[in-house]
């Protein structure tokens, strides 16, 4: 078990944990390779994400796994994986 897994199990999530979770969810939902999902990857251009169909599924999975409520309009304004991770971490702090 790596340090990220131990933190996740203890309920503490760092931005790195959030990224790993988001990365895995995007890979499972879109079929992209995990290594192609980087913080600077553009959700639509680089990852080919369909913002009308795949994004809602990704948001639902993130909300369930991380236990955070994400405003869909704010999610739609995210252009990159980094912006999505930042939004998740910001919403978790509220």
Write the element-wise H/E pattern from the N-terminal end onward: HHHHH
Low-confidence stretches: 1-10
- Enter the CATH topology name: Non-ribosomal Peptide Synthetase Peptidyl Carrier Protein, Chain A
Q: What is the radius of gyration computed over CA atoms, rounded to a whole number of angstroms?
A: 12 Å
Structural class: mainly alpha
Mean pLDDT, all residues: 87
What does the model show?
The chain has 94 residues and is mainly alpha-helical. It has a single domain (3-93), classed as ACP-like (Non-ribosomal Peptide Synthetase Peptidyl Carrier Protein, Chain A). The chain has 5 helices and no strands. It has helices spanning 3-10, 15-30, 54-66, 72-76, 81-93. α2 (15-30) crosses α3 (54-66) and α2 (15-30) crosses α5. The longest helix is centred in the N-terminal third of the chain and has 16 residues, at 15-30. The protein is globular and about 30 Å long. The termini are far apart. The relative contact order is 0.16.
Give the topology, please.
Blueprint: H1 3-10, H2 15-30, H3 54-66, H4 72-76, H5 81-93
Helix pairs in contact: 2-3, 2-5
């Amino acid at each position: 078990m790596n340090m990220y897994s131990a933190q996740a199990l203890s309920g503490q999530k760092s931005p790195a944990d959030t990224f790993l979770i988001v990365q895995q969810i995007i890979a499972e939902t879109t079929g992209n390779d995990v290594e192609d999902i980087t913080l600077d990857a553009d959700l639509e251009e680089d990852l080919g994400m369909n913002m009308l169909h795949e994004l809602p599924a990704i948001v639902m999975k993130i909300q369930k796994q991380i236990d955070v409520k994400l405003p869909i309009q704010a999610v739609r304004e995210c252009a990159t994986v980094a912006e999505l991770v930042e939004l998740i971490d910001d919403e978790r702090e509220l």
